[in-house]
Design brief:
Blueprint: E1 27-33, E2 37-42, E3 47-53, E4 61-64, E5 70-75, E6 80-85, E7 90-96, E8 102-111, E9 117-127, E10 132-143, E11 148-153, E12 164-166, E13 172-175, E14 181-185, E15 191-195, E16 209-214, E17 223-231, E18 239-247, E19 252-261, E20 269-271, E21 276-280, E22 287-294, E23 299-307, E24 313-317, E25 323-327, E26 332-337, E27 343-348, E28 353-361
Antiparallel strand pairs: 1-2, 1-28, 2-3, 4-5, 5-6, 6-7, 8-9, 9-10, 10-11, 12-13, 13-14, 14-15, 16-17, 17-18, 18-19, 20-21, 21-22, 22-23, 24-25, 25-26, 26-27
Length: 362
């Protein structure tokens, strides 16, 4: 049942994201593939180099840990969370969620600071004598080390919301709620500091609106280099974009660079190693516009129109920005040259490629 104890998160030892220096090394793609696999894919050779079979059959969704060493995959008809160690490519944990008289369905897994505890979102269906009845969604604070539920709550703490993320060193939360960049205590969500982004930098300037894209790949504990948008000071109907340099240690903005009128960033994929981005227009016809940008200057590099079959979308750019990948609704990647966007030979895999493409250090 629900507990009346403190709503604070458990004590923890901070776990850091990968270092900025590691970004210079090799990266791989990790993703789920039908019918029941997690695979490691080398974008340099376009080959699957590791394949991990899931114990619970078909997967539903995957979550990458903050330290980017583990992948949590929902399986077993949404009753289990399997944990894959990405360094060894092995299954290291299988966590079953069940309750007497109930059918539980795991909808999401959100890692708490330290990585040991998770908030597991569950849909609950009660087994009645002659029917099934739907109960309210419940969040389980789960201790993955001891495989037990610590607490049940109606909703996850607000400071763990989708717009908030852990700092690179894993010791506090960064939140853009309300427009400013807020620093929140890791266990309680209490605000400990704020960087003002709403106050105009000069007369007529608009607020700095962070996009959530950190060109340092959220690896640097002392600095964040984020893409932002802002209202044009002269043409108020126009939005400009650029990059803002934030000193996380001293908690202040150190530099703001505007690039000019904003470009469409819907579905943008970024090569953090090269700071090259690619976008793909939505389009209503089979023909779609693909565009690449230099995120050091904000300048467009190239663009090209290509035809795609239904339900295809941009899914990844290689770490070296030499190839762009389009997938979804199929067992293949359509591949394009990163410099010219010319079509390259497609890559056909054994099963359908589903879900997020996670980029992980090798």
């Amino acid at each position: 049942g629900r507990s009346g104890r403190s709503k604070d998160l458990p004590e923890f030892e901070p776990v850091a994201a990968p270092s900025l220096a590691a970004l210079d090394g090799k990266q791989y793609f990790w993703f789920t593939m039908y019918p029941n696999y997690v695979v490691q894919f080398d974008p340099a050779t376009d080959k699957v180099v590791k394949k991990v079979q899931l114990a619970g059959g078909m997967f539903w969704r995957s979550t990458l840990s903050h330290d980017r060493k583990r992948l949590m995959v929902v399986t077993n008809q949404q009753r289990s969370v399997e944990v894959i160690d990405l360094a060894t490519g092995t299954l290291i944990g299988n966590h079953l969620f069940e309750e007497e008289g109930m059918i539980l369905r795991v909808r999401s897994v959100r890692e708490c600071p330290g990585g040991v505890h998770w908030f597991v979102q569950t849909d609950r269906v009660k087994k009645e004598l002659d029917r099934y009845s739907f109960e309210a969604t419940e969040y389980l604070l789960y201790d993955s080390a001891n495989q037990k539920v610590v607490r049940k709550v109606k909703k996850m703490p607000e400071f763990m919301g989708r717009s908030n993320r852990l700092s690179a060193d894993g010791s506090y939360w960064l939140s853009t709620s309300g427009g400013d960049l807020k620093f929140l205590e890791a266990r309680t969500g209490k605000e400990i500091d704020t960087i003002d982004l709403k106050t105009p930098r000069f007369f007529g300037a608009g607020a700095i609106r962070l996009s959530g894209t950190d060109l340092l790949d959220r690896r640097d504990p002392n600095r964040s280099l984020q893409i932002f948008t802002t209202t044009d000071p002269v043409e108020k109907r126009r939005t400009n974009w650029g990059v803002v340099d934030i000193d996380l240690k001293n908690r202040k903005v150190t530099n703001v660079t505007e690039w000019g009128p904003s470009k469409s960033s819907w579905g943008m994929r970024v090569s953090h190693k090269k700071r090259i981005a690619v976008t793909m227009g939505r389009g209503r016809s089979a023909e779609r516009l693909m565009t690449t940008y230099d995120l050091n200057t904000g300048n467009k590099i190239t663009e090209a129109y290509h035809e795609f079959r239904p339900r295809r979308s941009l899914v990844a750019i290689s770490p070296n920005a030499d190839k762009v990948y389009v997938g979804v609704a199929g067992s293949d990647f359509e591949v394009f040259d990163g410099k010219t966007l010319a079509r390259l030979p497609a890559v056909e895999l054994e099963g359908e490629i589903v879900g997020t493409i996670h980029v992980v250090d090798g």
